[in-house]
Amino acid sequence: AQSVTQPDIHITVSEGASLELRCNYSYGATPYLFWYVQSPGQGLQLLLKYFSGDTLVQGIKGFEAEFKRSQSSFNLRKPSVHWSDAAEYFCAVGSSNTGKLIFGQGTTLQVKP
Amino acid sequence: DVKVTQSSRYLVKRTGEKVFLECVQDMDHENMFWYRQDPGLGLRLIYFSYDVKMKEKGDIPEGYSVSREKKERFSLILESASTNQTSMYLCASSLGLAGVISTDTQYFGPGTRLTVL
User: What is the tens place of the pLDDT at every residue in B23-75?
Assistant: First the structure.
């Protein structure tokens, strides 16, 4: 069965530091991969997505993610974190079999001044 | 911009009550979804709809039903609310023109935090 794992429940980084949020998926075919962000009190917003092609994907707000098939990973990165990036981040995989999105458990990012 | 609105941000109901959660999208999207969000569990799909009057069960449909009488509106119904349905409920919509849900960007509402006492 398809699944998505975000190993880090909670991450704290200092403002200006780099960030990497991990995402591992289990899926037999080429996955459709997404990262969403949920700011406090708001719904989820798409940061970026990967379907095929270049394995390094650029998104909004300065985020990028790299698809690594050999590691079944799709980690989210940002070179310099801003206080406004504090939020919960969700990785998701789209299943072509079921037509549904499967979400990871989420990673809460705290940004220290 | 796509806008997905949900009827209430916070709702408190009593066990056994019938509860309606309403969701409206303004971008003529084909697909609409209801998720529940619980700490440590991420988002889990309750039901989705790919057309008016059409619905499909998600991963956790038990205790819930849905209604889509108009394209822009998707309602989640808790027939008899129970305390284990206390949760954050998120509605989403996606374009769906290609008929493939798995590649669509989903647009989310702000959520309804439901407490069942």
Answer: 999 999 999 999 999 988 999 999 999 889 889 999 999 999 999 999 999 99
pLDDT digits (tens, 9 = 90+) for A16-73: 999 999 999 987 777 889 999 999 888 899 999 998 888 999 999 999 999 999 999 9
DSSP-assigned beta bridge partners for residue A38: A44, A88
- Say how far apart CA B92 and CA B48 lie, in whole Å: 9
With beta carbons under 8 A apart, name residues in chain B contacting A53.
none
**Is residue A75 within 8 Å of A8, Cβ to Cβ?**
no
How far is residue A32's CA from residue B19's CA, in Å, rounded to a whole number? 34
* DSSP bridge pairs for A37: A45, A89
Number of residue pairs across A and B with CB atoms under 8 Å?
61
A38 contact partners, CB below 8 Å, separation of at least 6 = A44, A45, A87, A88, A89, A90, A106
The reply to whether B110 touches chain A by the CB within 8 Å rule is: yes
